[in-house]
Amino acid sequence: MDDYSAWVGRSETRTDIAAPAPLVGLAALLDHDVSPWTPGIVPPLGHWLYFLPDARQSAIGADGHPRRDEHGLLPPTPLPRRMWAGSRIAFLSPIAVGAALTRRTTIDAIRPKRGASGDLLFVTLRHDIAAGGVPAIREEQDIVFREAATGPAAPLPPVAPTGSQPADAVRSIAPDPVLLFRYSALTFNAHRIHYDRDYARDVEGYAGLVVHGPLIATLLMDHALRSGLAPRRFAFRAEAPLIDGTPFDLCLVRQDGGARLWARDATGRATMRAEVDL
Hints:
Layout lengths: L10 E7 L3 H9 L51 E11 L8 E16 L2 E14 L2 E13 L22 E5 L3 H11 L9 H6 L10 H14 L6 E6 L9 E8 L2 E7 L5 E8 L1
Antiparallel strand pairs: 1-3, 2-5, 2-7, 3-4, 4-5, 6-8, 7-10, 8-9, 9-10
């Protein structure tokens, strides 16, 4: 695999405004009559609605993501499949709606690995976001690039016993194409696995449309907020894909200083795990 160590430390800076309209869309997506958010403040994970991709249409690749080359931030790996594998986020100070935002993104690490499905490239990005010049969020984001699919995804192994563990609070979500489309529209996410069923199945090997990782994380955060928690830190890790058409559960267990959360598919498998610190 190519050596991308020289890309570590590369960075870019972008600006935006914490506009209210995306938050109205997020509340509608999450099916709130009255949202559980502090009025006038961007809710936890609401920063994902800003700094949206803005590549020209002519620069978009076959998967819907901007094509990677030596001029961009991400390394130009030939591994075609991309997924957001997890994040660790610290909420340092509130972001007022309407605030001027600055985000500096730095490549913290690039790690090639060999897995059961072939070559993998893990890229860790650090996002430092300031609102009105005041540090507001620090996020470490893990992106994984994988080899092309050679056929339908292999069956997942038997469900681990912890996948069906009891929870203090459970909420069921029915992920249909409309939900996925609305989240893609809200985040300007053009990755075809979320809306092009033929592409998701025939090119990337999924059984159907893939529920966005950050959408699942946002639903888990919303589950925590509905349970009355006020997170200072949030971390999540994706473990298996969720496919549209089959309901899944959001699960929460309270613990000292916070809570553990997970998304549970219809078989009882935990497909994403998360933790909240208060």
